[in-house]
Fold this protein.
Amino acid sequence: MKKLAIAFVSALLVLGLTLTTANATPVDTYQFKTVEHQKRALKLAEELRCPQCQNQNLIDSNSPVAQDLRLEVYQMVDAGKTDAEIVEFMTSRYGDFVLYKPRWEPKTLVLWLGPIGLLLFGGAIAFTFIRRSRNAPKEEVAMTDEQRAELDALLNRDK
């Protein structure tokens, strides 16, 4: 029985070690030609959005698509391509969505000017509401003798 328990615990330890070991991908172990290339590639990969995750950049995402794109960015940087060429390649392949900071174009004006427009619209509504509430006539509500007696009874109940 003791040998069975030792064998079971050993199997669990081996399984645990197997599941927790990190698998290195080609992206994680990529060797850049220079340190400048590495810094440039990492900066560029931070500015590009993962097409699969949609809310993470290529550096933060662990998806297979992001790993492939990171490797592609790294290789293009080492191949001597400029940042503009790499961004153009990515946008031609995946659309403007891969850019965290969209370009200033007619089709992206809503993205750039939308928040300002919403802020102005909300301010105008707030201004109108406050102005109307200040200018509203103050009408006094008259109480009948019956209501006044009921109020006096409620107020004097605890005394």
Observations:
- The chain has six helices and no strands.
- The CA atoms of residues 49 and 57 lie 4 Å apart.
